[in-house]
Amino acid sequence: MKRLADTNTTIDTWRGLEQRANDALGLVELAAAEDDDAAVGAVAADLESEVAALREQLEALDLELRLSGPYDSRDAILAIHAGAGGTESQDWAEMLLRMYLRWAEQRGFETQVLDMTSGEEAGIKSVTVEVRGKLAYGYMKSERGVHRLVRLSPFDSDHSRHTSFALIEVMPEAESAAEVTLDMDDLRIDTFRASGHGGQNVQKNSTAVRVTHVPSGIAVVCQNERSQSRNKESAMRVLEARLLEVEVEKQAKQRAKIKGEHIEAGWGNQIRSYVLHPYKLVKDHRTDFETSNAEDVLEGDLDPFIDAYLKSTVGQEA
Fold first, then answer.
1. pLDDT per position as a tens digit, 187-222
2. Which class would CATH give 76-175+262-312?
3. What's the predicted TM-score (pTM) here?
4. Considering the domain 178-258, what is its CATH architecture?
């Protein structure tokens, strides 16, 4: 039903553009038939404004047209993991979380933090977020990889320059049980008391849930909900997404092997650098797109980077 609704929305959008283009052509014909210079000038001004608006909308739709992969239309599971470096990297992970939440908000996406482990002094060690919206995975898949921050440390009394890393994972949500084979006998489900903030129910009862897929060793923890059943439901969604991502990566490796090319997604392959000192620059190392407006990027202005990445992958399978 969700896919059908999205398709109907897309059809309505393009039909609306077609109607506006026809109306613009009608203005051209009207201007050509007028003998009054003032009337022609008024029609020309209206036409110029409408053409500019149509061009802007078409450019936005051009970005969506690039998202035609088998999972691009789905909701996404975003996971952020602080790298080595203690408080510095944990603070960087929290900065990235804020950046993605702001970006999602600006796009009208819904987000829900499923699990979060706080750092000892500041920041977060890891966080898992569900992002719901049209083409959520298609947009967010460009963010997978290692993100590097260079800045003057706010936690160092000498205010020396530090380099921090965080790993971003993005997975498509499974739409049906048929996509992921889950045998309940392969699952180990443990419950325990949540370690995060919460009311008395969270603190006194074993509401947190850990689900382990024994054959693969993949374990998922969810503890942000107030009830054990809702945490279990969230954990199962994340586990299904992780198992689906394993299958997607397996297929990608098979395709890469046929093409004779393979790039390992690991900590050594940083995709983007955010430099805040001694100058300000955010640069994507895959596309070479860069901007000196680091503040806006950290406030969620990611679309130029996403657009550049999608343009660079035209013709490649997602």
1. 999 988 877 554 444 455 678 899 999 988 899 989
2. alpha beta
3. 0.75
4. 2-Layer Sandwich (3.30)
